[in-house]
Amino acid sequence: MTEVAQPPLVLASSSPRRRDLLAQIGILPARTQSPDIDETPRPAEPPRVYAERMAREKALAVPREAGECLLAGDTTVAAGRRIFPPAASEEDVARFLELLSGRRHRVFAAVALIDAEGVLRARVAESVVRFKRLHPDEIAAYAASGEGIGKAAGYAIQGRAAGLIAFMSGSYSGVVGLPLFETRALLETAGLHV
């Protein structure tokens, strides 16, 4: 029995976490390229809608060759309708953690795939995360670690922040950066067998 060649996959991301997550399910992209888009939320845009729009726009922003599939993702953290951007500094990390301390928040992990024929499909996984009530010293120590810089809402669930999270429901891989269940389903739809 001969194996059918799979279309090459382009990962529209510079995130090493997304590449590592894909590797967990046996997928290695042929190449990666970072999309360059405006990630500003629209006025009154719901977080779930924003996450899916970002994943779709990232997928469309990266050129692909004929026959290639292209995968993009977005991780959006929200408390109510407030969307948290990636933390740009230790001060951002501390401010975000103060706001999230003891509260539940939602993480929308969107994934978009353009198949070899150019058809774009997207899915969104929703998770709920709750930090314990954080002491100011815990917030200061986490912010000083530098781990939260560049991360949505200023934390990495796969790192030191795991010890501060009291509850999590939904897609763990989605909170890390790519919802693997939804990603696998999209890849299989596009003829990439996992």
The CATH architecture can be given as: Alpha-Beta Complex
State the domain count.
1
End-to-end Cα distance: 18 Å
How many strand units? Answer: 7
Q: Measured on Cα atoms, how large is the radius of gyration?
A: 17 Å
Q: Outline the low-pLDDT stretches.
A: none
Helix content: 25-40%
CATH topology term: Maf protein
Q: Provide a count of the helices.
A: 6
Written description of the protein model:
There is one protein chain. The protein is 31% helix and 24% strand. The radius of gyration is 17 Å and the shape is elongated. Strand 3 and strand 4 form a beta hairpin. Helix 3 packs antiparallel against helix 4. It has a single domain, classed as Maf protein. It is of the alpha/beta class. Strands 1, 2, 3, 4, 5, 6 and 7 form a 7-stranded mixed beta sheet that branches. Belongs to the Maf family. YhdE subfamily. InterPro entries: ITPase-like_fam (IPR029001), Maf-like (IPR003697).
